[in-house]
C-alpha cells in the first residue's frame, strides 16, 4: 500500500490501496482521536459506500452523522454549502469534531471549504471516490464553491488530516466520470512528467491504476509542498483551466470539469505550437491521448465567448494574466501576458 507524505502545514499522509475504504476509521484515528464525525456524500455515492464508511468510523470509536447533497457540480454552491454548515451547527458539532468528505471533487472541495469555515476551522479527511479526486482534488488543500460569476470563486486553502484512497471504488464510475479523471491525469503528465504521459499513451489503464494514482499524487505533492498558496509553481496545475473554467461557467456548470479542461489544454497547446512557444507535434499527441480516453478536444462555443469567459481566471492580476504553456511534453512554464495577448492566443488555439 503506497503512502505518500505531504509536508504542508499541517502535514498529512495520502494512503492508496485496494480495500482501504473499510479501514478509513482506523487510518483516521491514527491522526485524530475519536470524536463526532460528519460523513458528507452525494446522492450517488451514498447508496454505494456510505454504510461501509460509517461502519468503519463507528467501529473505531467515532460518533457518526451523515449529510447527503444532490450529486453534481450544480450543488457546489453557496446554498448547498450553507445547508451543510447549518447541519453541522444544528447537530451540535464543535471545533474538535471531524468532517469526512466521501466523494468526488465536488464533495471534497465543498466539504473542505465547510470544514475550513465552520467555527473558523475543524479537521477533515478526504476519501476520494472518483479518479479525478484521487489524482488531483483530494491533494493540496484547495477548497471552494462556484459562484454564478465563475468557478471556485469562493474558497480557501485548508489541508486535510489524511487522504484515504481505495481504487476499487473506481469500478462503479461511469465511463464519462472515469474519463474526467483521465483529463487531470493526462494534464499531470503533460506538465510535469513525460514518462507518465507516455505510459498513459500505451498502457492498459485499469490494470495500472494504483501506480498511476500514486505517481500523480507524488507529482502534485512536490508542487504543493513548494508552493502551497498558488503564488507561482502551483499555477502549472492550472494548465487548460483558464479556458476550461470559462467553458464550465458558460455551460452553467453542466459541462464536466474534466471535459472542459481537456478542451482548454488542446486550445492552449495549439496556440502555443502555432506561436512557436511549444515543441512541434505536442497538440497532435495531446489530442490523440485525450481521444484515447474518450475526452472531447474541441468546442462549438464562439471564440468571443471563450475570450470573455476566460477573463475571470484567478491567475489574472490587474491588466495581466499568467497562462500555462506546455513548452515540451512533461515541462510546462508560466507566461505572463496582457488580456489582449490572451485573446490572440485563444483565437489562434480555437481556429482549426
Ligand atoms: N481542489 C482541487 O485541487 C481540484 C482539482 C481538480 C478538480 N477539482 C474540482 O473537482 C470537481 C470535479 O470532480 P469530479 O469529477 O470527481 O466530480 P463529482 O464529484 O461531481 O463526481 C462526478 C460524478 O460521479 C459520481 N460518483 C462519485 N464517485 C462515484 C463512484 N465511486 N461510483 C459511482 N459514481 C460516483 C458523483 O455522484 C457525480 O455524479 C470540480 O468541481 C472541480 O472544480 C478540484
Ligand atoms: O491544485 C491546484 O492548484 C489546481 O490548479 C488543480 C486543478 O485541477 C483544480 O481544478 C483547481 O481547483 C483549480 O483551481 P483554481 O484556483 O483555478 O480554481
Ligand atoms: Zn482541475
Automatic annotation (TrEMBL):
- Does this entry carry the keyword Amino-acid biosynthesis? yes
Q: Which cofactor does it need?
A: Zn(2+); NAD(+); Co(2+)
Stretches assigned to the 3-dehydroquinate synthase N-terminal domain: 68-178
Q: Which GO terms describe its biological process?
A: amino acid biosynthetic process; aromatic amino acid family biosynthetic process; chorismate biosynthetic process
**What functional role does this protein have?**
Catalyzes the conversion of 3-deoxy-D-arabino-heptulosonate 7-phosphate (DAHP) to dehydroquinate (DHQ).
Entry-linked HAMAP family: DHQ_synthase (MF_00110)
Family the UniProt entry places it in: Belongs to the sugar phosphate cyclases superfamily. Dehydroquinate synthase family.
Name of protein: 3-dehydroquinate synthase
Q: Which organism encodes this protein?
A: Oscillibacter hominis
Encoding gene (name): aroB
